[in-house]
Amino acid sequence: MYVISISHKIATVEIRERFSFSKEEQEEFLRLVMDQGHYEECVILSTCNRCEVYFTPSPANAGFEAVQEMEKLLTEFKKTELSLLLKYFLVYNEEKAIQHLFSVTCGMDSMVIGEDEILGQVKDAYTRALNLKATKYMLNTLFQAAITCAKRIKTDTRLSKTPVSIGTLAANEVFRFGGDIKRVLIIGMTGKMGTIIMKNLYGKENIQITGTSRNHNSIEIINREYRNLRMIDFKERYEYIDEADIVISATTSPHYTITCKELSESIRTGKERLFLDLSVPLDIDREITKINGVNLHDIDFYQQISRQNFELKEQETIRAAQMIEEHLDNAKKEVIFHSFLPDLPDIGNAMEKIRPANLIYELKDRANSEELSVMLQLVRKLL
Amino acid sequence: MYVISISHKIATVEIRERFSFSKEEQEEFLRLVMDQGHYEECVILSTCNRCEVYFTPSPANAGFEAVQEMEKLLTEFKKTELSLLLKYFLVYNEEKAIQHLFSVTCGMDSMVIGEDEILGQVKDAYTRALNLKATKYMLNTLFQAAITCAKRIKTDTRLSKTPVSIGTLAANEVFRFGGDIKRVLIIGMTGKMGTIIMKNLYGKENIQITGTSRNHNSIEIINREYRNLRMIDFKERYEYIDEADIVISATTSPHYTITCKELSESIRTGKERLFLDLSVPLDIDREITKINGVNLHDIDFYQQISRQNFELKEQETIRAAQMIEEHLDNAKKEVIFHSFLPDLPDIGNAMEKIRPANLIYELKDRANSEELSVMLQLVRKLL
């Protein structure tokens, strides 16, 4: 198996977009490759972080030519220059290619290590190729093994469930908050952290977002681009604060965005409220917790969780790497053994003619010292 | 097996002399080591270029302590400081030690690559230890294998018979020259080349040497130290030239040491004579070949042979390295297999219970991908 890979490791988002394939394009490309007659199998994986073509050449087309031809097919299909591909791609073959497939499928090659969105994307890519009959023994064996391995990591480790970014941690807090419809007010929504949190929450079920900004241009743009999201001027924040279940403040302002006095004057309804202060210096007056029903988490709280999660994630990454090692080695074994199968009957016959006790001597005569050492180590395991 | 080695690779001749063992000392040291009770086997090799102790510790004494104790025994025996040994020795173990033994025995670790004097020295060292019952399975197997390998290289390659030094080539020319007693006159015998040639010829059967020097001190010293060698003043050279069968001139003089005119005046006897001019600029007038019976070889002649021999020696070194590779690997195999022998009956029994055709599957289940790959490669050789 070969892999041609254009990924976030080398290529910027602009380059990656040049090699981005829609589902229809993927199918069209797979048909094109298979019709070529020079390839046995092909799977194409296209996500926002990578475009990868996994393929096995037909026996007559093995070697470097098969890679060159695939490069040509890719660039012609995407109407880009070959030089662009050659500058930003990586090629793997044999063991390295198998290793890469496992690494990608298990989220170890992702921007956020261990994320499991890629697993679904690999499954889709494989299924697409399978349905078009673009896979045979090799890619079936390896993709199925990689997917099984990734599923095990997903089930048996906490890798994909251990966020370390403050934005994700804060968003998770919102998801966990009780109530049917959750009204969220994000103060400083056009800032860096505000934008991350908005994107984590936007479009999720039962969440209504109101955002503030001091910039009228931004307010207009966001109101136009994001449906079902209300953008207000920073000055109007207290008018919308009573209805909010969760208030997140993430400005870079040197002043409080919420003071206890003004908040207590604005609150008219009695309910549980969560305030998240993700700013340094602090945005929210600590005193507000004296108000009935008001809970406050500040950035220190999330930083501590982030640190704990980071440690946990490190441990889980090691465990996942061990699982990959094991599954990967088994997959390699299958591939090695498969190539041996045609000879098996003859070798079985040859072995039947040798007394088992003599077999070791017969093999010894044919082995060099390294082979002998491995062989003896192995037969010892029969005990 | 371990080796502690003090050799020309690191240690100067002064250091090597501190660790030089006479035959009696070697025997005494072997007895001392074996009486210690901490060693199974020991061979000591002492030549002017190296002092090496090959040993295997007793099972209870395996590991680094066995080396440390041997260092102590060595330095105490030779009444030198441990720090001196530690500064100038090399330690090898396992495969590296076996490799070193082969390399030494086959002359690949010698100052002049491929020389075979070391083979006799290794044989003697081994026989000495064998006679004192200081060798068992391991050193017997490895020394015998190394000696067999060196003998094969000696017989099957021209490595030890292909001199590349001008001094050796010139001396060989003298040995080949016809006649019962060969009288050699060396003009400039106390120079660098003159000394080498004298040492190559001195003490050899049927060779009488006369040497010249301009230095009266040197003449006196050599006349005192070398019996059966006549030292004369440079000015007297023509008085002794008639009796000489072979005249070698190797001075750094800017003038001819032998001119045609003076030579023809000095020669009274009719016989075949060989003149070797090993100097740059030339020492001997080219015209002398007009004199009846006079043959002349100059340094260009020998430099050409030296270059040819150097090329031949390079080829033969490659062939020898291949022979060593082969013998070395077989020796390693023997050692590996020997350690496996105690388990062989049980493993044989276990194998008897498995159908040969199933054996491959049973081994596959117990192998990792690398072991599987080696195993399949090996059983394929049964075809």
UniProtKB/TrEMBL annotation, chains A, B:
Kindly list the residues the record flags as site (Important for activity). H100
Pfam families referenced in this protein's UniProt entry, alphabetically: GlutR_N (PF05201), Shikimate_DH (PF01488)
Where's the active site on this chain?
Answer: C48
Coiled-coil stretches are none
Gene Ontology molecular function: any one: NADP binding
On the tree of life, the source organism's domain of life is Bacteria
Kindly tell me the pathway this chain contributes to.
Porphyrin-containing compound metabolism; protoporphyrin-IX biosynthesis; 5-aminolevulinate from L-glutamyl-tRNA(Glu): step 1/2
Q: Which residues form the Quinate/shikimate 5-dehydrogenase/glutamyl-tRNA reductase domain?
A: 181-300
> Could you tell me the keywords of this UniProt record?
NADP, Oxidoreductase, Porphyrin biosynthesis
Q: Where in the numbering of this chain does the Glutamyl-tRNA reductase N-terminal domain appear? A: 4-157
Broad enzyme group: oxidoreductase
Q: Its Gene Ontology biological processes?
A: protoporphyrinogen IX biosynthetic process from glutamate
UniProt EC number:
1.2.1.70
Q: What does this protein do?
A: Catalyzes the NADPH-dependent reduction of glutamyl-tRNA(Glu) to glutamate 1-semialdehyde (GSA).
**Comment, domains:** Possesses an unusual extended V-shaped dimeric structure with each monomer consisting of three distinct domains arranged along a curved 'spinal' alpha-helix. The N-terminal catalytic domain specifically recognizes the glutamate moiety of the substrate. The second domain is the NADPH-binding domain, and the third C-terminal domain is responsible for dimerization.
Q: Which PANTHER family is this protein grouped with?
A: GLUTAMYL-TRNA REDUCTASE
On assembly, the entry states: Homodimer.
Similarity comment: family membership: Belongs to the glutamyl-tRNA reductase family.
One further remark on this entry is: During catalysis, the active site Cys acts as a nucleophile attacking the alpha-carbonyl group of tRNA-bound glutamate with the formation of a thioester intermediate between enzyme and glutamate, and the concomitant release of tRNA(Glu). The thioester intermediate is finally reduced by direct hydride transfer from NADPH, to form the product GSA.
Can you say what this protein is called?
Answer: Glutamyl-tRNA reductase
